[in-house]
């Protein structure tokens, strides 16, 4: 997380009021931090010619001296990365022990700290400001966040410390999400993954526009968990009452490279499972089928596998893993398979290789005649990765019927060595 302007201060001094003043009516991003009561809220803002990110650190300091080591490490990282720190205090209350605690923490960064004495709503209160010099910061600004007094002066003063280029917030890595019916074990699996020793959850929290994004590392690879439904932090007691939020699942699927479709295999595959599977297929996403609660199943893996392949035949590219979140079994298999899927999902294929593969498929079985004429392929090439998208140029695009396309894609995947990813086929006429 690289926020150029970080707002800190104890509770109730007016941080979020100031944040809203600076940001205006823009869309904000919310992060959750484990062990911290209030979320971090982030948004883009601008002042004069510059755009920057502002974050309200919310409840980070709420714990006072009891801040856990882990949270403290994250706080220090955020403080050292920020361009500007706005340290907000309550001008009506005077200096408190909480302020002094935060001041000590900020002291190493004092060059970039602006002490914002808030709630100076009137001329009369100005005299309160002088007391706050005792905290040891040179740049002191009286403001009234509520009434918008002094905020412009504050922004003018920090303007020169901001970089010219706005920082764009996006994580790199394999974007994975967990979708499935309620109660199949999504949040149990996510907790098992993030709690696993092999997994390093790397940052303060996830950044996002539409979801909580949790970056983590596994076997030296970067991942980003996309959580649109808030299943990561959902209190355990609440399961069962969640309704199936299709919209949020679609969003998660769209934001992902690899979607983990979680099934409660002890219940078998329902129509709702098939619908969710269909959403993944239609968006050409990579997929790992996670057959969870396998501890409750008497059948063998082979039997279960045959059953899943039959019921979800249209996801034939998706590897199947068997897990028990409760027994912590198969958890690593999910990520290992997500890596395999991602490799195929992002592979670039040489044009010559693609054309040879296309010819092999045509030789195996040519498209049926179109109005009595032979259907030919002039040329083929890869247009995109994520997913691999192959365009073919033909004399009769209308001659490529659904059933033949299905055959063609299946065989083409085979010849190209794409085992674990869908392949998107685009059929075009000449010019
Ligand atoms: P936070 O906990 O630091 O984020 O504080 P809030 O922004 O939620 O503000 C705490 C309280 O202080 C709220 O009741 C605000 O309305 C009030 N407040 C914020 N800014 C001002 C201000 O400039 N003047 C006055 N009088 N009250 C303010
Ligand atoms: P979600 O709604 O998909 O996030 O499902 P939860 O993770 O909340 O799990 C729903 C219920 O299934 C909880 O009671 C879990 O303890 C239980 N559960 C989750 N995974 C397993 C599993 O692998 N085996 C068994 N027996 N129960 C599980």
How would you describe what is shown here?
There is one protein chain. The protein is α/β, with parallel strands linked by helices. The protein folds into 3 domains: 4-161, P-loop containing nucleotide triphosphate hydrolases (Rossmann fold, 3-Layer(aba) Sandwich); 174-345, Rossmann fold, CATH 3.40.50; 351-428, 2-Layer Sandwich (GMP Synthetase, Chain A, domain 3), CATH 3.30.300.20. The chain has 11 helices and 17 strands. The strands form 3 sheets. Strands 2-3-4-1-5-6-7 form a 7-stranded mixed beta sheet, with helices on both faces. A 7-stranded mixed beta sheet has the order 9-10-11-8-12-13-14, with helices on both faces. The protein has a 3-stranded mixed beta sheet with strand order 15-16-17. Helix 10 (351-364) packs across helix 11 (402-416). It is elongated, with a radius of gyration of 27 Å. It starts with a strand and ends with a strand. Residues 235-243 have low confidence and may be disordered. The site of one guanosine-5'-diphosphate (GDP) has 18 residues, from helix 5.
């Amino acid at each position: 997380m690289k926020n150029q302007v970080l707002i800190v201060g104890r509770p109730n001094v007016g941080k979020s009021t100031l944040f809203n003043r600076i940001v205006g009516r823009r869309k904000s991003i919310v992060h959750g931090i484990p062990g911290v009561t209030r979320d971090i809220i982030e948004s883009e803002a601008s002042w004069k010619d510059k755009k920057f990110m502002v974050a309200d650190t919310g409840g980070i300091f709420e714990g006072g001296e009891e801040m856990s080591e882990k949270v403290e490490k994250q706080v220090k990282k955020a403080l050292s990365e920020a361009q500007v720190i706005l340290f907000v205090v309550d001008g009506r209350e005077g200096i408190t022990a909480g302020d002094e605690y935060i001041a000590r923490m900020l002291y190493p960064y004092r060059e970039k700290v602006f002490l914002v004495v808030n709630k100076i709503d009137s001329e009369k209160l100005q005299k309160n400001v002088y007391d706050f010099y005792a905290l040891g910061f040179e740049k002191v600004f009286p403001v009234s966040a509520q009434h918008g007094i002094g905020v412009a002066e504050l922004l003018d003063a920090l303007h020169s410390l901001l970089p010219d280029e706005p920082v764009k917030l996006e994580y790199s890595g394999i974007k994975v999400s967990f979708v499935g019916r309620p109660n199949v074990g999504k949040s149990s699996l996510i907790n098992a993954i993030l709690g696993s020793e092999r997994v390093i959850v790397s940052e303060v929290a996830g950044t996002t526009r539409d979801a909580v994004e949790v970056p983590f590392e596994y076997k030296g690879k970067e991942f980003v968990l996309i959580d649109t439904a808030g299943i990561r932090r959902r209190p355990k007691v609440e399961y069962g009452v969640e309704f199936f939020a299709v919209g949020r699942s679609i969003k998660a699927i769209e934001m992902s490279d690899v979607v983990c479709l979680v099934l409660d295999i002890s219940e078998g595959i329902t129509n709702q499972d098939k619908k969710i599977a269909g959403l993944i297929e239609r968006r050409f996403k990579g997929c790992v089928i996670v057959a969870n609660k396998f501890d409750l199943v008497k059948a063998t893996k082979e039997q279960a596998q045959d059953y899943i392949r039959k019921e979800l035949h249209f996801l034939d590219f998706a590897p199947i893993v068997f897990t028990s979140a409760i027994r912590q079994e198969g958890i690593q298999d999910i990520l290992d398979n997500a890596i395999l899927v991602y490799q195929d999902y992002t592979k670039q294929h040489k044009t010559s290789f693609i054309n040879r593969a296309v010819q092999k498929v045509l030789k195996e079985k040519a498209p049926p005649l179109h109005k009595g004429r032979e259907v030919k392929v002039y040329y083929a090439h890869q247009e995109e990765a994520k997913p691999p998208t192959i365009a073919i140029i033909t004399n009769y695009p209308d001659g490529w019927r659904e059933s033949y396309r299905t055959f063609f894609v299946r065989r083409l995947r085979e010849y190209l060595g794409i085992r674990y990813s869908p392949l998107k086929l685009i059929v075009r006429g000449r010019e």
